[in-house]
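Exercise 7 asks you to align residues with tokens for two separate proteins.
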Amino acid sequence: MNSTMKYVVLIGLIMVVVFGVTIISINVETPGLDIPVDSKDTVSGVPLSFSMTAMVFDPAPPEDKWPQKYFQGFYEIKDEQVPIPFWFQNRNSVPVRLSVTGRSCTACTRARVGIVPAEALRTFKKQAAMAALVQGALPVPDLATVLPAVALFDSMKFQELEFDQPGSGVDIPAADADGAPTLGVFQMMVKVNIIGPKPLHAMTGMRVGNGPPTPLQFDTVVLGVQPCLVHPKSVPLGELPEGAAEKTGTVVCWSATRGFEDFPPPTATAGGKDPFIHLGAPVKMTDVELSRFDAELGRDGQHVRAISGYTIPYTVYRRLPDAVTVPPGTPREPDIGPFERFIDVAGVGNQAYRVPVTATVTGLVNLTDGKQVDFEKSFATAYGASIEKTLASSRTDLALEVLADETTPRYLKATLSEPRVEAGRKLWTLKVTVPPNACSGPLPPDSAVVLRGKTGGEVQKVRVGVKGAGR
């Protein structure tokens, strides 16, 4: 989380508690209890008035749910604990003893309580009120309110709560003589040590005087993430027929935990320096673009809040523009058949992602039946198998030949019949053979017969995928 967000969180939580705008009056509202310390009466209700008892990330919280607006929910995997705050008031004329009775994760959760000193709270109210006279009823997060808020938070003295000693606890001071409640915070200290969501809870007991303890459970869900993430995970482009325009789009490298000051631009390269895919320089996203990106991920079922991010523009060419210079002999069109490239993205935290870019290049020549040679039924390994398929092209001047050295796996044998012309199309019979005892189990996923096509002065390769399995 960047420094600006930290201040906004702090102010958002403290100001609404102090001014009583929203959060103390929602969720767990308990009237003040006026019970003598030595009273034998049974206490009813919740002795402390908490703003809420569950803190979860909500990408679009209602206006009256201030804490969820600022609870980022996403944390990097680190060997340290992060505080999940639950603010409260003691409105009673007597102290309330707060203790912990259980937790869902003994290895990753501890708890502590902080009390805002009465004098520090009075000082903060005066300073914030002066800012309010200038800026309005609720001061905005600027220097006039940040400094008093930071000072208020720094004035708090935290005490650890011992889960292994249920009888121990922390006494929350009573409201002062004028009835002003004591303000404090119960913090679940959580260690985020796994990628993905991690639901946690802590159980507490609150006691007023000699009454029985009132149980109250606090819940949270934290999500462990890498410092940088990439979206989308893959770029499927469908078919690229002859004459198709270039395909453009962006890959986003973003962070749910770091601001731009801690999240420099990533490096991005097109795998193999392929001329048919071009990448632009990463572009810093604006606040509006980040909000739109959040909404886009939400539609995909990923409810997040991106703090920073960069777009990486890409262009995929079906045919290289004439303005692009390539070495002599380099084809200006990709091979016919599967188009499989990738974009490598490297960001902070030694994070590296490979984004596949896939398509099917069509046009020069195609199978008349399906997109690949499929043996359909498994064949006996000891005997091998052969299959014939028809290739067709509208280019009657096309010449085809098998490139045996580039066919994979090398044991695949492929032959082409003499061409024939029917109904204005040029046809070939492609025969693919798996020799005896060459294949046991499925053929490798990259199995393909490679052809070379010549039309006029241009040369283009054709990859025909092969699928099958020996038994």
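Second protein for Exercise 7:
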Amino acid sequence: MRKSEPGRGLSVPRTGWRARIADRPARILLLGYLFYAAVGWGLLMLPVAQSGPVAPLDALFIATSAVSTTGLVTVDPGSSFTFFGEIVILALIQLGGLGYMTIGSVALLVVQHRISRRREAAARAAFELPSPVSIGAFLRAVFLFTFLVEAAGAAILYPMFLRAGVESPLWAAIFHSVSAFCTAGFSLFATSLEGYVAHPGVSLTVAALSILGAMGFLIAVDIWRTLLRRRVSFGFTTRIIVSVTLALIGAGTVLLALFEPTVAVLPWDARLLAAFFQAMTAATTVGFNTVPIGNLAVPSIMVLLVLMVVGASPAGTGGGIKTTAFATLFALVRCTLRGRRDVLLFGHRVPAEKMRTATATFAYYIGFLVVASGLLAATEAGAAFEHILFEAVSAMSTVGLSMGLTGALSEPGKILVIVLMTAGRLGILTFGIAIARTRPDDTAAPQPFGP
């Protein structure tokens, strides 16, 4: 941002804390999510929002979990909060799912028919958009697609919840539809969706909403273009997202169906449905569950961990390192093993910048995970390490699945998980960029590597 000196045509750069924030879109995003969480925390602390006493730290945990669309909870939302409190939680989920920059940018588009370059840069950073995509058209498509899908999901869930005897079935349908599409995993039921383990209607509807949210709004734009042009018009990124997402869910379903004892006792149709749902919930980072996660065998936990680390897709509502980064790393390893100079993915050469970003994202994620797991092991000394690792990955990838550790977290553990959920929603690499200190010599010429 530059301002002109009075009476002169010269421009000088703005300095100070405002410039340090404005020059990094990642910092704007971080402050936006922190603001949403703080407002939500204040609203959830109101007596009108609570059915019974909720500790301030637990209210902050719930607000952060909702804004980050994670779904980890230290208290049961359905019994701890009033209808007003549930509305606040759902509003935070919707704001977090759409993204901090989306709301303000769409409002400016409606009023001013344009947005500033800085806001556009922040919106592109939030959704990890490629440069050819028009930000204005994209944001309008995001809003329209979101509310159409969520309304359709609620309409489908309502009669099923009504027949199941759910209290306030319309509200439950709306809440779970929004929570599923925003991959938040918040449920008004104390045991999530375990009561619907063999119910194909509820399971498949929630799965469809979650997959649409996780694959991202770029998919919606391509679908809209296909409908308008009456011919398939899927871009390169869309093909990667769809292929990787379906492959991971398919592989996870097969492994869980064949080797998980918890689902092996079910009839084959219910067994496949339960296995698919758990693979889907980890891959999309939605966090609903139809079987108790704490009862799963270690091999199944390993499968879920891999799916959670990869996570959802760019411009989606989920977390993880993203399917595109995973595909890039997979192509890099494959081409290196085959001795190829160029890294090819679906017949396209992957630019060096994309490989560097994918590598940095994965490296930073693993480093962050090691530190977070070590700190959680220190704060939760009596917990099994696999529970600690699962909790850390679930928070960092904004999944919301837990092996039972969340409700037993100490106060330092809760604070740490709050930080992990915030970092996960922003994107682990973006979070690192947001908190990194800008050095004066960042733009200096690089020195040769070696002696």
